[in-house]
Every structure is written in C-alpha cells, then in structure tokens.
C-alpha cells in the first residue's frame, strides 16, 4: 500500500504497518506533527452485534482514567467511522512493542525488570479502578524512546469477544511475560532469570503487588544491581520506525492529505464530526481524546493514589463490571469508501486470524511469540555432511499452535511444520537436519519463518560447505 498518500481524520499514515487479532496497526503522525498510531479494525469483527458500542465504552473508560492521572496507558485520541471502516487513533506512538524488541536482540535484565515493574503498577491501578486489561502480552507492551513501558489495546480484546476478564487473567498474562523474559536470561544472567521466575510465581499466588515488590526488593540480583530504563530506551530508539532524530521533519515532508477524505464521524461524541471536518456541531463542549479540558479540583481516586505512590494495597482489587456507552453511533449521511489498505489476500489473512482469535475464550493468555533465535551446530561442514540447525522460539507461555517453515538457500525445498505449545512452558526448539552433497565450496543459509501466530517472526544462520 502507499500509505504516505493517505490519512484518516487528519492523521497521516506511514508505511510501517503490522497485523494483530484486532486488525491493522499503522504508525501515524497526528495533526500537530507528533508520533501517533492508527488501528483499522477488522471489518468482520467490528461489524458483529454490539462490538462497536463495547469498543467505544472501553475507550471512554480509558479516557477517564488518563484524565484522572493514570499515565501507564497509551492514550486514545478518537474512534472514528469512515464509511464502513472503523479506526482507533492514539495520541502516542504504539511501536516498538516488547515483542518487536525481543526479535532483534536480548533486552538487558535491568530494562526488562523496569518494564515488568511499570506494567504491574499500571495493572494494579486499573484493577483498583474496577477495570482490567484483558490481553497482556509482549505485543501490547509499548516501549517509548525514554524507556517507559505503556500498555496498549486495554479492554479491546474483551470488547471484541463480549467478555469481562477478571484481574487473574491480567496476572497470568504478566506472569507469562515475566517467564518469557526469564528464558532469555538463563544462559548469561541466571540470577536475573531466577528473580523473574520467582516474580511470575508470586503473581499467580499472591498477586501482582507481591510480584512487583519482589522485583524492587531483590534488584541486587540484576547485573549492575539496579533497575533502569537506559538500555530499554536505547533498544527502543534503535528499533522504532521513528528512530531518526529528524522524525518530525520527515513527517512534515509527507504529502498533504486530500482536502476531501469523505464523511468521517467520531464515535466518541455521537452526532458530531471528527476534528478537521465540516458539519453541524450542537452547542456544548466537545473533547477529542485525553488531555483536553480542565481537571476539577477533587480528592484523588484510589487508582490515582496507587499510580502516584507505587504502593498498591492488596484489598483494592475489584472485578470489572461491563458498561456500555450511552447512545448509538450516528452513521454518516453519505460515505465514500477509503482507498484499500492492501491486497485482497492480505485482508484475508487478517480476517482469518482475527476470527480465530475470536474463538479463543479461555482465561489462559493468548499465544504470542517473544523471540526467535537460529544457530548452527558448526561453522563449516565437509563432504556429505548433515548440518544440524536449531531454532529456539520463546513464547509468552500461552497455549496454542506455532506454524513454521524452514527455508534452505541451496534448494527450493521448504520444510513446513507445526508445534503445539503448553501453558507451563515458554521455550521450544525447532531442529532442522540438512543433508549437504556435491563437490563445491559455498555459503549455506537456513532461515526459520514463524508463520503463526501473527505477527510473523524470522531469523537465520549461515555456515560454509566445502567439498
């Protein structure tokens, strides 16, 4: 697709896009030139009865929390409808995620601990406010250029499925995240790995407050002896699509949006048009996204106190109750189909993955890939040898099926396979035995491609064959 030529409600879309169970995420530039994000919901999911209303209700809840002082969430600026499409627009970038960083290089223990502490703190504040996240995994933990860990997609998975996840589901997702990070440290930082494993166990038995407390109390087990964001910030700046210092200048160089984007209606204020589009607006204040308006002088809520103090109490956790936003979204009087976001085949993949995700209704965390690492047993092989290549896949501890492919550079054979994962295991090995023949001297490359779950992950290794 040719994203720089397109936009939605004043947000300009970049070329960086990736698929999730909800639809297509795209790195974007907000109307005032800041880094932002845009999520195009899968049409088959957002069109199911009640889903659009539940999504709007979840976003309105988030905006109240953010306005109340909770800073651990990715703020949502608006939810808009453009013809038969529904978009969620964020006021902050939604990449890179922890999943992105885990695919490039190991995260240092101090940064991993920082991400775990901050996400646990945010989850505790959410629970104190009477809501839950519902889908905690590496793909929903966004790392900012300052190294802060923010949660995205809060409540959206539950809204799609028509569920209200209990706090225990969040704790299980966080524990799986901790175990996945621990697995990457076993070889070179065993004490850190043990600390993360203990924290994961505490999250499942005594709760997130106890797990977070253990990380803070035992940070001497980390290399360097302290929790810090510096390494995580450096990794995020190196991985982000907005990593270059001239990001805002580059954003400004994008072509201007067409004057007529069609009818775009905000769903957060029924009957009103989105900012930047003409149309009648009834009297009264309108707020588009968090941070607009003046906060009243009032006593802090429990959620605010927990976030600001960082000392959550165990008895404040409550189960969320489902709510719906008042009113029904008003459809545009006329609509014009926005240009396609990709090929028909690409949308088929998105839809199939999203529909499958719809039917995963267990309380166990959804399967997500944390990292992929491919290594060869030797650097070179001789005549008639069989090369042994091993791919190590680290997951979030979710139960499901991994579909993978081995590609070999010296022939067209593709070795396909599947692996059933378990909820009590986070690391798996995928071996490839490659028979080498002929008299030649050549560089051979084996590439492991994780086809599902999305997003796709890949890694490769090269070695020499001399005969």
TrEMBL record:
Q: Which SUPFAM superfamilies match?
A: Protein kinase-like (PK-like)
Q: Which domain of life is it from?
A: Bacteria
What Gene3D superfamilies has UniProt attached to this entry? Transferase(Phosphotransferase) domain 1
Bias class Basic residues marks the residues at 321-335
Q: Which UniProt keywords apply?
A: Membrane, Transmembrane, Transmembrane helix
**Transmembrane feature ranges:** 338-359
User: Where are the stretches annotated Disordered?
Assistant: 302-335
Q: Does the keyword Transmembrane helix feature in the UniProt annotation? A: yes
Record flagged with keyword Membrane:
yes
Protein's recorded name: Serine/threonine protein kinase
Which organism does this sequence originate in?
A: Nonomuraea coxensis DSM 45129
